[in-house]
Amino acid sequence: MARVSTARLAVFLVLLFAASSVLAGGCSSPTAQSVKGPASTALSPAVPDRSEIVPSGSSSTPRELRRITVAYPTSTVTMTGFYIAIQEAFTVEEGLDAEMLLMNGTLGAQSMVARQVDFGMSAGAALAAALRGAPLRTVFVQIDKPLFYLFTLPEIRTAAELEGKSIGIAAVGDSTQLATKATLKGLGANPDAISYVANITGPQSLVALQSASVAGAAVSAPYDLIVQRVGFRNLGFMGNYLRPGHKSSGRLEKGFEANP
To answer: 62: pLDDT confidence band, cut at 50, 70 and 90?
Structure first.
């Protein structure tokens, strides 16, 4: 009986060892394959830089970027789309090396005529220049109304009270002056009885009103919220009185025909 028990125990140990070896081999195999695999498969693919992106449908060789300059009159929310396009390299994807240049609308129109910039973002100034014979063409319209508000000192309650006083605008002959004149006329005042002070736009509008260097100002968003919170009077939204295609892109006609 002792030999039979010993034999059975020996057979049981052999079978147990064989089973454990099979299980160990089955578990160790995948691990060995993953370790011996190519090193590149263990790494995540690199995210390509936007400067290396080639537009779909084009050849694998990156095309040369076309340099363009765009004059814009003021830093407002209407310019946000252009900032995003440049910062996110959407312009690069379209084959453009674009640069935004801050200058008032009148200077922007003059710079286009002089071929110092390619595009301008002040519709009013471009329209005024075109009416005087400048060879400018409107390429597209971004906003169909001026996003300005006419703010005055607290003691001024009507537009007629601004006659004989001064109003701050971005530039003479640009969208802010055209919109201001249209608003004053719509509110019953004589626009020609008021003087206009240039280079007052954006945050300068608040400074000029606080110092009382002007009686009123054409204030763009989002500065209108700050100016109103401080206590200055809002006489009206200029978009209700003038809709010339406020923020549009203009270009010299000859340049457009040569490089559409």
So the answer is: low
